[in-house]
């Protein structure tokens, strides 16, 4: 259920990378259970904003505040942020040799939740989730992103969402490089998980395709480190038609 209670409240945020200010004066409030879309040209600062939200040490907050559930997030380490239910899917996920998805996910789930699951219990949960999301069971035995195609990596992220059940998921170009069928699986997975858990979602995307599967509440447009426009889903359609330059 959507509420008007802010989950994330960003005020006058400035973020610098290696001494260069990239994000400038961002003000953004995202309510509990809301699905927000963040668009904007290449290099406008979308990923930088996501990394700052996750607490990446390279991304320095030079000014402003980030409040999450009414608490100052900037004082928390990335691990603490993850434990508080914030999840960031990377635009370019890295590979981990010799770690299966099942083991990776179990470690992540056990780190987040008080109640620990043994491998057998976790297998059962994973199997159920994979069935719900129409995944091939063999998928879980494969190594984390090693030898995965681009689309498979993105699908693996949906499994992470399904088992971790974050409060806030930031999905950085989860739809890029996916074929129409994978896009459908991913779009429906986001929708299913969002509805089941009332997850708050920030979808970073360049295209409208993914938006046909998810009910979007707000669309924000970033340019040169600032949020310059906001609106409902029609804004995303308008950008698709006319581009950024004509707005
Ligand atoms: N680690 C870094 N070192 C130096 N410059 C960086 C770093 N990270 C980002 N930048 C610069 O910050 C700007 C914003 O980059 P960012 O990745 O946030 O853009 P984006 O909106 O996510 O773009 P895209 O749509 O292409 O993913 C770019 O000019 C980029 O070169
Ligand atoms: Mg990016």
Helix content: 25-40%
Mean pLDDT: 90
**CATH superfamily grouping:** P-loop containing nucleotide triphosphate hydrolases
Largest sheet, described in full? 6 strands, mixed
Unreliable runs: none
| Order of neighbouring strands in the sheet with most strands | 6-7-8-3-9-10
The first-to-last residue Cα distance is 33 Å
Radius of gyration: 18 Å
Q: Could you spell the SSE succession in H and E letters? A: EEEHEEHEHHHEHEEEH
The CATH class assignment is: Alpha Beta
Bound ligands, each once:
adenosine-5'-triphosphate, magnesium ion
CATH fold type: Rossmann fold
Query: Strand portion, in percent?
Result: 25-35%
Structural class: alpha/beta
Overall domain count: 1
Descriptive overview:
There is one protein chain. By secondary structure, the protein is an alpha/beta fold. The protein has one domain (6-242): Rossmann fold (3-Layer(aba) Sandwich), CATH 3.40.50.300. 34% of the residues lie in helices and 27% in strands. The chain contains seven helices and ten strands. The chain has helices spanning 46-54, 78-83, 101-112, 119-132, 150-164, 180-197, 233-242; strands at 6-17, 20-31, 35-39, 59-68, 71-72, 86-89, 168-172, 200-204, 218-223, 226-231. It has a six-stranded mixed sheet, sandwiched between helices. Helix 3 packs parallel to helix 5. The radius of gyration is 18 Å and the shape is globular. The two termini are 33 Å apart. Magnesium ion binds next to helix 1.
């Amino acid at each position: 259920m959507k509420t008007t209670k802010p989950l994330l409240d960003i005020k006058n945020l400035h973020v610098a990378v290696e001494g260069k200010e990239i994000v400038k004066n961002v003000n953004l409030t995202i309510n509990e259970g809301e699905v927000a879309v963040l668009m904007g040209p290449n290099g406008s600062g979308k990923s930088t904003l996501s990394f700052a939200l996750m607490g990446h040490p390279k991304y320095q907050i030079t000014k402003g505040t980030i409040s999450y559930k009414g608490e100052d997030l900037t004082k928390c380490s990335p691990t603490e942020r993850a434990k508080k239910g914030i999840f960031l899917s990377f635009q370019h996920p890295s590979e981990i040799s010799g770690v299966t998805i099942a083991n990776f996910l179990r470690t992540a789930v056990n780190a987040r939740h008080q109640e620990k699951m043994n491998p057998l219990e976790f297998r059962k949960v994973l199997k159920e989730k994979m069935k719900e999301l129409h995944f091939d069971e063999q998928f879980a035995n494969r190594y984390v992103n090693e030898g995965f195609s681009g689309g498979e990596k993105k699908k693996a992220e949906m499994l992470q969402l399904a088992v971790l059940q974050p409060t806030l998921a930031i999905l950085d170009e989860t739809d890029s490089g996916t074929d129409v069928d994978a896009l459908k699986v991913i779009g429906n997975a986001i929708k299913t998980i969002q509805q089941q858990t009332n997850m708050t979602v920030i979808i970073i995307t360049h295209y409208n395709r993914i938006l046909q599967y998810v009910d979007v509440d707000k669309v924000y447009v970033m340019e040169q480190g600032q949020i310059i426009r906001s609106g409902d889903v029609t804004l995303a359609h308008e950008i698709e038609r006319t581009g950024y330059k004509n707005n």
